[in-house]
Design a protein that fits this description.
Elements: E1 6-11, H1 17-28, E2 35-40, H2 51-59, E3 81-85, H3 88-97, E4 104-106, H4 107-112, H5 126-163
Parallel strand pairs: 1-2, 1-3, 3-4
């Protein structure tokens, strides 16, 4: 059982899926001391988050931060960081590209134990962004519960060892 101090979501450009996912995870982990951020696989310049992604999050009473896209780097990986990606190809690309890559899972793999692709809504209509948000929300709800369960189990282990 691993407990993490940071959750990092990664999508292609860090303008749609991963910032929405980070915003959703922050909603579920509110009050818990875990840093949640997002990165992109291919970020050529610090592009602002997609306005459709921001609008969809706002429609669900979640405010995405006014950040710009950030490229994932080797220094983003460590034992205390959980990296969640949008599909199996992205996971493989990270392991092929970054020699420090560790704790990388697809979101579906971490939440459900099976691969589920999160479709990229970039360049599509607001309905596709809504569907993407809803899919992310369902999976992140489960993933957050897994993270919280692991934290509580670890805390219980520490409490038990302090009594000995």
């Amino acid at each position: 059982m691993n407990t993490y101090r940071k959750v990092l979501f990664v999508c292609m450009g860090n303008t749609c899926r991963s910032p929405m996912a980070a915003t959703i995870m922050q909603h579920f982990l509110k009050g818990i001391d875990i840093l949640v951020e997002s990165r992109g696989m291919v970020v050529l310049f610090p592009e602002p988050y997609n306005p459709k992604a921001v609008a969809v999050a706002a429609a669900h009473d979640m405010i995405m931060p006014s950040n710009s896209a950030i490229q994932i780097e080797n220094d983003d990986f460590n034992n205390d960081t959980l990296v969640l990606v949008m599909n199996l190809a992205m996971k493989q690309k990270i392991y092929d590209t970054y020699d420090k890559a560790i704790n990388v899972y697809t979101l579906g793999e971490f939440a459900l134990g099976t691969d589920v692709d999160i479709e990229d809504p970039y360049g599509r209509g607001i309905d596709e962004y809504n569907r993407c948000f809803e899919q992310l929300y369902e999976l992140i709800d489960i993933a957050a519960k897994n993270i919280i369960h692991n934290l509580e189990a670890r805390k219980g282990e520490n409490d038990d060892s302090n009594r000995l």
